[in-house]
Amino acid sequence: MRVIELEAPAKLNLHLGIHSELDDRGYHRADSLMVALDLCDKVIVQETCCDGAPKNEASPHVDCIPPVGIPEERNTAYKAAVELAKRVGRVPCVRITIHKHVPDQAGMGGSSSDAAAVLRALCELWGVDPLDPVVAEAARMVGADVPFFLDPVPTLLVGAGDVVSKKFKSFAQPIPVALVRPKGPGVSTPAAYRAFDERPSAPASPNALCAALQDNNVCASDIAEHLFNNLDPVACRLLPKVAEVRAWLAVREGVLGVQVTGSGSCVFAVCATSEDANRIVDEARADLGAWACAAHIA
User: CATH assignment of 175-297?
Assistant: First the structure.
């Protein structure tokens, strides 16, 4: 039985502009510029034998290490396998093992990235072109962030944040970041959007950030200058610990810019150097008792 092992990178939103109007599906229109990190889950997809099982009863099996505490059928990796299988006429007889390193409820897209890794692995196992529109369709059915992770270079997404508008070259030099997530429960995405609807704010344009990314010599200070997320104040309002982390990071030496990613609860600091990011992470663990990790925008 063949086995495919892939890394599933976390993401950051350098720009997230939520619009108050909804599309035909009831989703908020969103402009999202996402980048991948070198912090990754590991996803292993192994073929299994389901000879003799009725086609409508054959299903993937998902194991998460450590467990994530949700039924298997609700896991995005499970959903991804089922969605692609029905579109390409295959039976999803696979065992999926996910070694989790990206924290949940952090706004870092861990579960979406896991789902995309499963789609990419199944494309390899089943001889499907990963650029086939049916793969992107399956990705969108699983979650808005999943299409980005099929090809996680810096990407501007529009629609509900699930339609690729423009891709950019990867950074010539990795951009160091310090990631800090407060202890305890994170911010619920549905709760964040409900709170946004109660006090909506107009989004900024992503054009300045897009222009900066066109430059092959874009650097950390260029990125920090154009950070934007109008869910940032929502996350800080819903979970005061996020606001505390944000304020703490903003005054650390070597920090160029600070922002919540997604709807939270992780706050990231764009740093001048990798040494600054490592030091800040050590300080965050000691001072805040928070989950913290130094990483790079890939």
Answer: 3.30.70.890
